[in-house]
Design the sequence.
């Protein structure tokens, strides 16, 4: 029996990788259901390794590349790419973004209009990251929960993990040394007047914005990266900046309804690269920062390979001494 603390995206991904290799797994989860999760519930759901390469280490791009195919085994993934645009006055930002990233192509006004008719006439240049994708993280958490249960994983909700577990995926609650909280803020807006087919990133020197379509006229907007451990609700400044940038992307978004705002504390190490950390008999899977959906599959695979290799080594040495 393998015990896991935490049923966020990391804990569930680990449970899936372990259970599908035949392990019996129990997860302890403090909250009553995925909608009470303190971080994974508020994510954008972008599976965008090459765009993230603008600021992230090469390791993030490398580990993230397999996430799209992984999630397709579990939930609906929209493989529509990412479109990156900048207002004319911030054109230099687009050139800088292109220099710092790979796997994109330059688009002109006609190509932009063909991909996203709502943006026709609004931007003359864009970068298109064709191989990227997005998912609805809430749907994904619910589908992954169902998938692990179907493999026989037991999830004990409203149950604090015991002092010793095999795998610790409690995010910021793990108390792991070197981990810091990075506040992420988001808004969900709804409008029947604008349709986007893919994630749009709007470059802006102060507040780069992304808009992820959630279907039925609903959009998740995210942007800010504030080094803070505060749980307080979203600030007025953040709402103004998020919605102002959305308005700059398309004025019709100014007429959208603001239906939800949220804040999550993303667990990050100094280099913003997640990792497995051994502490006594517990392996921590943590530090997923802004890449939980992008990188949990790779880390969970590493954990499961490590665990089964160790077990194979143990079986081998027992046979050798018998
Ligand atoms: C606004 C925002 C946008 C984001 N956008 C993206 C994106 O587009 N793409 C992407 O890949 N990532 C994105 N992320 C990042 C992603 O959401 C995080 O990296 C991820 O959620 C971290 O998951 P986790 O499982 O490590 O931690 P958590 O989601 O925090 O899960 C930890 C779990 O442990 C449980 N727990 C805590 N203490 C205990 C205990 N004592 N006993 C039992 N259980 C316990 C908690 O209840 C929780 O369910 C975004 C995050 C935010 C906030």
Sequence:
């Amino acid at each position: 029996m393998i015990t896991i603390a935490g049923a966020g995206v990391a804990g569930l991904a680990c449970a899936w990788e372990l259970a599908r290799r035949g392990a019996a797994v129990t997860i302890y989860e403090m909250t009553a259901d995925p909608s009470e999760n303190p971080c994974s519930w508020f994510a954008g759901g972008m599976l965008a390794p090459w765009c993230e390469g603008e600021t992230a280490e090469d390791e993030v791009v490398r580990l993230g590349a397999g996430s799209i195919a992984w999630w397709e085994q579990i939930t609906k993934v929209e493989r529509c790419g990412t479109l990156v645009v900048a207002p004319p006055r911030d054109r230099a930002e687009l050139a800088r973004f292109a220099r710092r990233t790979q796997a994109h192509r330059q688009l002109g006004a006609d190509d932009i209009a063909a991909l996203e008719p709502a943006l026709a006439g609004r931007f003359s240049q864009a970068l298109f990251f064709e191989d990227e994708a997005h998912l609805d993280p809430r749907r994904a958490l619910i589908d992954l929960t169902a998938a692990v249960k179907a493999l026989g994983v037991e999830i004990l909700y409203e149950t604090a993990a015991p002092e010793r577990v095999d795998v610790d995926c409690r995010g910021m609650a793990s108390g792991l040394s070197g981990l810091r909280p990075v506040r992420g803020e988001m808004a969900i807006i709804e409008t029947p007047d604008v349709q986007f087919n893919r994630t749009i990133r709007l470059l802006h020197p102060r507040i780069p914005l992304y808009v992820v379509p959630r279907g039925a006229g609903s959009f998740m907007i995210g942007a800010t990266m504030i080094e803070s451990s505060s749980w307080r609700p979203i600030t007025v400044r953040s709402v103004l900046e998020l919605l102002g940038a959305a308005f700059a992307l398309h004025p019709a978004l100014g007429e959208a309804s603001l239906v939800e705002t949220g804040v999550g504390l993303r667990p990050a190490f100094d280099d913003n690269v997640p990792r497995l950390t051994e502490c006594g008999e517990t392996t921590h899977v943590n530090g997923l920062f802004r890449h939980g959906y992008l990188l949990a599959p790779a880390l969970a695979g590493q954990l499961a390979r490590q665990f089964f290799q160790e077990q194979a080594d143990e079986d081998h040495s027992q046979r050798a001494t018998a």
User: Anything to note?
Assistant: The chain is about 30% helix and 25% strand. The chain has a mean pLDDT of 94.
